[in-house]
């Protein structure tokens, strides 16, 4: 048996297969849901717009220059994750007031599933009745004024330790 296969041939086959799947995915998402996406800069297959963020400038400046070119709402594809960049204060206010339930949940990541006990931790839970109950329990029991005052001595000790460390 001869299992010698040129490694460059395998890489080319996988690259072509990935490119083909990316093109199929783009066509399916364009024509499938009928929703118009916000403007976006040209992207590369598979990595999307990650190449735009690999500059020496800070990310907020890169996103600011993109918003000056493409408008206050930009759709970016970072790998396989769609990202919506909103750079207008009026639109951000609208997202957090009138459309807050649409933007309330976090993406379902496998790390959050396994490390967060199947999305049961408050910071990783998706928006819904379970999350609302967690928020209610946290505001009533953990972040209440009585509970915060009960740990005042810890804050005072930490501030004095920080002051002695600085001086």
From TrEMBL:
Residue ranges spanning the membrane: these are 6-25
Assigned keywords, A-Z = Heme, Iron, Membrane, Metal-binding, Oxidoreductase, Taxol biosynthesis, Transmembrane, Transmembrane helix
Q: Mind listing the GO molecular function terms for this protein?
A: heme binding; iron ion binding; monooxygenase activity; oxidoreductase activity, acting on paired donors, with incorporation or reduction of molecular oxygen
Q: Which GO terms describe its biological process?
A: paclitaxel biosynthetic process
Keyword rRNA-binding listed? The answer is no
Q: Which domain of life is it from?
A: Eukaryota
- Which Pfam families does its entry note? p450
User: InterPro entries from the xrefs?
Assistant: Cyt_P450 (IPR001128), Cyt_P450_E_grp-I (IPR002401), Cyt_P450_sf (IPR036396), Plant_Cytochrome_P450_Monoox (IPR050651)
Q: Which pathway?
A: Alkaloid biosynthesis; taxol biosynthesis
Name the PANTHER family on file.
Answer: CYTOCHROME P450 82C3-RELATED (PTHR47947)
Report what the protein is called.
Cytochrome P450
């Amino acid at each position: 048996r001869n299992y010698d296969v040129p490694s460059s041939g395998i890489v080319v086959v996988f690259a072509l297969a990935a490119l083909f799947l990316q093109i199929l995915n783009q066509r399916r998402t364009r024509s499938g849901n009928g929703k118009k996406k916000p403007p976006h800069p040209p992207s590369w297959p598979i990595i999307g717009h990650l190449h735009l963020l690999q500059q020496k400038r800070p990310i907020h400046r890169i996103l600011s220059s993109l918003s000056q070119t493409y408008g206050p709402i930009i759709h970016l594809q970072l790998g396989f994750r769609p990202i919506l960049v909103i750079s207008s204060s009026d639109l951000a206010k609208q997202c957090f007031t009138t459309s807050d339930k649409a933007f309330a949940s976090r993406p379902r990541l496998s790390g959050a599933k396994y490390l967060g006990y199947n999305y049961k931790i408050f910071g990783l839970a998706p928006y819904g009745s379970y999350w609302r109950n967690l928020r209610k329990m946290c505001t009533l029991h953990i972040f209440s004024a009585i509970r915060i005052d009960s740990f005042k001595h810890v804050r005072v000790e930490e501030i004095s330790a920080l002051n002695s460390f600085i001086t």
